[in-house]
Amino acid sequence: MTQSNPQKLIVGNWKMNGSLAGNGALIQDLLKGWPTHQVSRRVQAAVCVPSVYLAPCAGLLHHSCLDLGAQDVSAHDAGAYTGEVSAAMLRDVGARYVIVGHSERRQYHAETDQLVAQKAQKALAAGITPIVCVGESWSERQAGQTAEVVKRQLAAVIQLNGHCVCEIVVAYEPVWAIGTGQTASAEQAQEVHALLRAQLKAAVAMHERIFILYGGSMNAANAKLLLSTPGIDGGLIGGASLKAADFLSILADADAVSRV
Ligand code: 13P
Fold first, then answer.
1. How far apart are CA 95 and CA 53, in angstroms?
2. 116, 223, 248, 251: which could form a disulfide with 101 (CB 3.0–4.6 Å)?
3. For the chain, how many structural domains are there in total?
4. Domain range spanning residue 123?
5. Is any atom of ligand 1 closer than 6 Å to the C-beta of 173?
6. Active-site annotation holds for 84
7. Residue 194 lies inside a defined structural domain of this protein
8. Is 137 exposed, middle or buried (0-12, 13-18, 19+ CB in 10 A)?
9. Measured in angstroms, how far is the CA atom of residue 237 from the centroid of ligand 1?
10. For 23-50, what is each residue's pLDDT tens digit?
11. What CATH code is carried by the domain that includes residue 240?
């Protein structure tokens, strides 16, 4: 059934940071600390890099145990959509994941639930795993609307993608916890993860296991507690993924908690 996953998935979202040289150095440091021969099968890891750096990062990550992801994808296949990048293009350069519906895109680019669902659909059709972000704002939480908001956001993706939904990853990212240093408590995250899991369970085959990640100020100091919380299958990490030591520490915590 759509139960908590025995493995962990740790994904870095670099957002709009870095440079060709800086990102290359970061990847080299990550690969040194997370070498293939030491990697546990219990932890999968990926970094979602700015689109212009996908190809060079793909070269560096080739044959490594770190997967490559993008941060957005077009809802269109091809054509006159200046500035957009299609799912086929992402696939072409070796992306395994793409983040869709990040709150920064919902907020700054007016992305609707429907558009996010279409982006997830394009990713799935191209063989890329969409990491579908859902999350409430602080005022929505204060108004007791958390469940309603996250369920509405996920419902749009389920409705458009039907049984393919078993191929997605979900990330619960409370907007108020992103980049603020204010993490959701393990209980708050667990409660929302349980809601989302129940919603997925009602929509897909009983045996499927869908990763539900937590994102929002996860860092080297709090990762172990969050990752050991039942129902939290991993993390989507912003700021702390830009420092190799911190991201490696989170990977080590994921490995440790998935052993027990
Ligand atoms: P921070 O980890 O910087 O809070 O960002 C979380 C996030 O938005 C990941 O997608």
1. 11
2. 116
3. 1
4. 8-187+204-259
5. yes
6. no
7. no
8. middle
9. 5
10. 999 999 999 998 776 677 789 999 999 9
11. 3.20.20.70
